[in-house]
Structure formats: C-alpha cells, structure tokens
Amino acid sequence: MDDDTGGARRTSDLARISTGNAELDFILGGGFPESSINILMGEPGSGKTILAERLVFANAGSDRPILYLTTLSEPLDKVVRYLQQFEFFDDAQLASGAVVYDTIADELERDGVAALVPRLKELIKTIGPKIIIIDSFKAIHDLGVSLPEMRRMLYQVSGLLTAYQTTAFLVGEYSSDMISALPEFAVADGMLELARQKQGTRDERYLRVLKLRGSSYQEGLHAFRITPAGLEVFPRLTSPHLPPSYTLLPEERVHSGIPGLDGMLGGGLWTGSTTLVQGTTGSGKTTIALQFVLDGLKRGEPGVYVNFQENPTQLARTIQGLGWDMDEARAKGLHLLYSSPVELQIDSILVELFAVVRANGIRRVAVDAVGDLVHAASDPRRVLGYLYALGQHFQVGRATTLMTLETAGAGKSPLAGQVSAMCDALITIALERTGDTARRTLQIIKARGTAHDLNVREMVIGPQGATLR
User: Fold this and answer.
1) pLDDT, tens digit (0-9, with 9 covering 90-100), for 321-371
2) Which of 212, 236, 372, 464 could form an S-S bond across to 308 if both were Cys, CB 3.0 to 4.6 Å?
3) Where are the domains of the chain?
C-alpha cells in the first residue's frame, strides 16, 4: 500500500521486522523496529498468538534463529499442534533450527520470576536468536511478589536483549487500564493492542498501535479477521494528505445515464463528485444506480457496483432487465462487490472497494445502499469517516460516485442529513399515491457549483430503466 491511503508516510531509517502482513506493516510504518521490545496485548482469543507466530515464520531463515518461548499459559505441544493448522506453518523451518519452540514453564513453577533472566541468558548465548517471543509474559508478571521485583527483572531483561541486538515480543492478556500500572509497559518500545467486540450476531476485531518509538504509524482502529493464512488486516482509510488542486471545467461532466436528468443538472454530474440519491422503498434508487454505472460502460468508463441486498444472481437478472448481458457488461469493465447484510463488515468492504477502484481504473462507483453500512456498523461515525475519506480519494482519482439511501420504512437512517452534507449533489425520489394512482417523482435538492432545476419532475421506469418527463 502506498501514500494514497492517507496515512503518515515519513520514512524512518530504522531497520524493520516485518509482521508477515503487508497491511499491518503499512500501519506500523514498515514493521517493528529491530532491537526493540514490543508488547502484543489483548484479551484471550483476540489473535495475539496467531500474529506472533505469523511474524516468526515470516522472518525465519536468516542468519540467526527465532525463538518462541512459552510460559505458564499453554503447554508447548498444544501451541505447536494448533500452529500446524495455519498455512504459514513450515515444518522445515523447525527441522533446520531456523525456528525454535521452547518452554520455561518448569523453571517458573520452581523459581518464580527469578527464573527468567538466567534462562534467557542461556538461550541467547546458546542459539543467539534474532527475535524472541515470550508467550505469555503476563503469566510471568502474575508470579511476581512485588513491583520492585518485576522492575529489577525487567531492567535486566531489557539490558540483556539490547546487548545481543535481539527484538522481543512480550505477548500477554493485558487490558488498556494496565498500561499506567504495570512496569513492563515502561520498558516497551512498541505496544499493539488487539480487541474483539460483539456486533449483533457476530464479532468484530480491531487492532491499534498504542506506541511505537521512532516510527510514524497510522493511528486509530484497524479492522482485521483471522483466516487460515493468519490475520487479514484492513487499514483504516483516511483522507488524502493534499486536497485536489485542479479547476473544474464545464466539460468535466459525467452523464448520469438517466434521460432528462443531465439537463436538470446543467449538463451532468461533476467529474469526481459524490451524489446521494435518497428515496422510499420502491422509488427506483437501485435502477438509477445501475443505469449510472451501465451508462459509463457505453462510454468506455469502467465502473463498480457495491450491493448489500441482491445476490449476484438477482442482480444479473436486474441488469438483464435493463437490456444488458452480464458477461458483456463484465467484459466492458463492470465490477460487482456483494456482501450479505448479515455478515457485512464495513472496514473490509470499503477497503476492498478502494482497492478495486485503484487497481482497475474505475471511473464510476455506485454504493447501494449506505443505510446497510450504517446499520452494520458498531459505531456509525466510522461509516461517515470512511465515506468522507472515500469521496476525497475518488475525487482526486476522478472517479464519480453515486450512493443511495433509504429514507422511510425499516431502512431509515438517523444519519441521512450527515451523509447528504458530505455529498456534492442530493437527489430525492419518491413514490406518490393519489387514490388508486401512483407515480414516481424526482427533485434535485442541491447540486454544488450548478444552477440546477429545482422543479419536481415525474420519473417513469420502463424496459430501459428510468426516464424523466
């Protein structure tokens, strides 16, 4: 990932240890600094051990081995047995001695905290590891009889690691309220917290960098999920560093694909702008969004349609109803992103959208519908932040965006006003009933930089889609 994601990107001269995950390395400003002491913290089951083990095998095979040292948390054979279930596990690295798994459980049971420094010194002199993982270090802390004892031990550990240029990762079941109280945090050069929170019927996982000396890292909560390959991380999308510095010209317009709408907009939508189409159920929002993307295909402009309600089969039927063959549409540059609202995770879908736009030269983006994102989010403010950042990136890249939002019924969003405030144009469509007669209407509420038509127009949906009268 590069500067376009909006994170702080000042390059450091420090040599780095890769986590084995490009996205997490990006968040860390290139990885963990060499010869540092780092804490990987979080509740049980948050993914700490998987992260540490992925880091081990990503760095195995250099001139110095890597040591994974277990304590009193889990038996060594159990740790190795579960490790073998992951794709990154490489038995050859263990057989060659490039990766060494060992335990200090017996010594800790016998001698307590005092056992750590002598055993570490022995292991360092014997195998000279480049990286040491101690899992769980919190279990060692719990054996301490006093804070002074822990402070003396940590001082000795820090000096030992520094003298032998060893990078250490202390894995533990720490919570954020322990940071100011426990001495291990005082010697740590880096702190990475992994957290899990319940969202509806599923769990959402986040990580954040609390501290990383000598590094320019990306702050905030970054979503991740655990896969057979380890952690799949979705860096928090932020706005570009520099706003677009160009002048919008009259010819920089994008046709909407809706007959009659471009005239109301003074020639079409501004290139790189964001338009919100809001309306009631059945008013035609999806039809307008699809017409917008499909019209781009006719003009050689690749597009992506993001959908949370209709599965790919249903969507193919709808596209066919608008006179398009799905294979033909794909060949002309149509990309579809579908996520079930049951499993919708806003970080993953929006980061994937951003990647698709950048990788495929996308010129048109349709998100149908924003309300699904709002309802899926544990914190609606994250949705607003993501949408704003996406809009800024798309504007810089000259990708024009159209989003839909349900305004009545079960999909009503409490953030409708806040979403529309981020948009360059706001279009309201409605399904009006008079007795036994119903008709659809469209009105442009706002269109920045445009002397737009404010009148309410009738909208008819026929075999070729929506048309204004």
Assistant:
1) 899 999 999 999 999 988 776 666 777 777 788 889 989 999 999 998 887
2) 372
3) 3-234, 253-468
Q: What is the model's pLDDT at position 342?
A: 63
The residue among 282, 333, 273, 298 whose CA lies nearest residue 438 is 282
Is the CB of residue 173 less than 8 Å from the CB of residue 190?
A: no
The SS3 assignment for 463 reads coil
> What confidence score (pLDDT) does residue 346 get?
72
Superfamily of domain 253-468, CATH level 4 = P-loop containing nucleotide triphosphate hydrolases (3.40.50.300)
Q: Helix (H, G, I), strand (E, B), or coil: what is residue 295? A: helix
- In 321-410 the beta strands, taken as DSSP E runs, fall at 334-338, 364-368, 400-406
SS3 label, residue 71: coil
pTM of the entire structure? 0.75
Q: Does this chain's domain 3-234 share its CATH topology with 253-468? A: yes
Res 241: pLDDT: 59
Q: Is residue 356 a contact partner of residue 302, using CB atoms and an 8 Å limit?
A: no
Task: With beta carbons less than 8 A apart as the criterion, state whether 39 and 188 touch.
Answer: yes
Token pair 């048309």 in the structure block, residue: 467
CATH architecture group of domain 3-234:
3-Layer(aba) Sandwich (3.40)
Report the C-alpha gap between 376 and 383 in whole angstroms.
9
Q: What are 387-401's pLDDT values in tens digits?
A: 787 778 888 888 999
